Amino acid sequence: MDAQDEELELQYATARVADEEVLRYIEIKEEARKLYGSFKPVKCPALGNQQVSFPSEGFNHLIYRIPKQERHPRVQIMRFELLTKARQLLERTNTVQEYEDYLDQVIGWKYKKKQLINTKIRDWGFVAIINGYRIKVVVRQVGAGEKQFLSVIPAWSTKYYRDIKIVRNTKGNVAD
Questions:
Q1: Which candidate, 114, 119, 153, 122, places its Cα nearest to that of 139?
Q2: Could you tell me the residue ranges of all domains in the chain?
């Protein structure tokens, strides 16, 4: 996600998140953390009823864009509000809208030492309208590991031609 996309996301969040909610940011964040912690793995029909878990990395991705670079509180609150809808989407969806696989280096243990290991990463993107909200959920699998929730994104714009409208979509990596 580039700076322009971040600015558009912040503008969208500013229009959706009230000032009163921003003042309660810490409280909302803790409520979201408790909610997220209560999520059990779900079976996703689009992935052949394989389970998708909700690890701490997924919640951290809602807070941080990249390590040590926190998202704006309004953007975080907007994403927190979409968590239950993201879970519903994963339980109900039958179609994968986006798929990407690539090699990346991840930190792992090899010969009793931490090392960078080339690993295949798979990202799936699911887009749906849940209770009037158009959202995108990203699921990631690292190597042969389990499929894990990575992020929920308000699909606030798209660059595809639909309904005689052309609107802008996020660019780049499925997981941004």
A1: 122
A2: 3-166
